[in-house]
Write a structure and sequence with these properties.
Keywords: Amino-acid transport, ATP-binding, Nucleotide-binding, Transport
CATH topology of one domain: Rossmann fold
InterPro entries: ABC_branched_ATPase_LivF/BraG, ABC_transporter-like_ATP-bd, ABC_transporter-like_CS, BCAA_Transport_ATP-bd_LivF, P-loop_NTPase
GO molecular function: ATP binding; ATP hydrolysis activity; branched-chain amino acid transmembrane transporter activity
Organism: Amantichitinum ursilacus
CATH superfamily of one domain: P-loop containing nucleotide triphosphate hydrolases
Protein name: High-affinity branched-chain amino acid transport ATP-binding protein LivF
Distance between the termini: 36 Å
Largest sheet: 6 strands, mixed
Structural class: alpha/beta
CATH class of one domain: Alpha Beta
Oligomer: single chain
Strand order of the largest sheet: 6-7-8-3-9-10
Helix content: 25-40%
Strand content: 25-35%
CATH architecture of one domain: 3-Layer(aba) Sandwich
Bound molecules: adenosine-5'-triphosphate
């Protein structure tokens, strides 16, 4: 049984047909990446998982449970955490308060151990825990957004363009963190326009075009694929 399965999923925004029969699966322990151009439907796919928008056709299951029509707040309680594009941290709260917000639904007895783990992963967050989050650099905010998601102890972590707009040094650090989390057992679905980095760390990948999957394979296979190279790697 796969951890996550999309079977023939369609999604619409009014008249816009954003997903057109998407089939993907994510196995426990994998890093799976979804690559595609602007507007291909990557963010929509992640949001459809939470029912925003709802799948208009097809089904989504998570750990053997059909979540296609489940309420959004119930889906997030299944252990799925999303780090949205653009990070969306709480800018006026401190770093520590942001991390506390991430632990809202976690057991209080887990807090000390979990925050220690986040600080080990991102030492800069410990050093800046009393600082307002809005004054962090873009890369630090991305670390905070990931740290906040981890405080909820997810079993599946969804990352929507975590490297977008970051300096090269931070991009490296974010991808290294993704690999480290995965080695500790975290299953990760990663949406990226940075196809090169994403395919390098991913076990498998899917290429999304106009709302449909057009190509799939291992990270290595997709990196070597002429179609992928021409559309997403060369010059990019
Ligand atoms: P990007 O990398 O630019 O975010 P994407 O691959 O994530 O691209 P989506 O954001 O999923 O693509 O967009 C897929 C299609 O759905 C696009 O045509 C987009 O214009 C449309 N779309 C996305 N969100 C909405 C919305 N809230 N209302 C109407 N149309 C939308």
């Amino acid at each position: 049984m796969s951890m996550l399965t999309f079977a023939g999923v369609h999604a619409h925004y009014g008249a816009i047909h954003a997903l057109r029969g998407v089939d993907i699966h994510v196995e426990e322990g994998e890093i799976v990446t979804l690559i595609g151009a602007n507007g291909a439907g990557k963010s929509t796919l992640m949001m459809t998982l939470f029912g925003q928008p709802r799948a208009s056709q097809g089904s989504i299951s998570y750990q053997g449970r059909d979540i296609t029509r489940m309420a959004t707040h119930d889906i997030s309680r299944q252990g799925i955490a999303l780090v949205p594009e653009g990070r969306r941290i709480f800018p006026r709260m401190t770093v520590l308060e942001n991390l506390q917000m991430g632990a809202t639904f976690a057991k209080p007895e887990h807090f000390d151990g979990d925050i220690k783990r986040v600080f080990e992963l991102f030492p800069v967050l410990e050093a800046r825990q009393a600082q307002r989050a809005g004054t962090l650099s873009g890369g630090e905010q991305q670390m905070l957004a990931i740290g906040r998601a981890l405080m909820g102890r997810p079993t599946l972590l969804l990352l929507d363009e975590p490297s977008l707009g970051l300096a090269p040094l931070y991009i490296k650090l974010i991808f290294r963190t993704i690999e480290a989390l995965n080695k500790e057992g975290m299953t990760i679905l990663l949406v990226e326009q940075n196809a090169h980095h994403a395919l390098k760390v991913a076990h498998r990948g899917y290429v999304l075009q106009h709302g449909g999957i057009v190509l799939t394979g291992t990270g290595k296979e997709l990196l070597a694929s002429p179609e992928v190279r021409a559309a997403y790697l060369e010059g990019g």
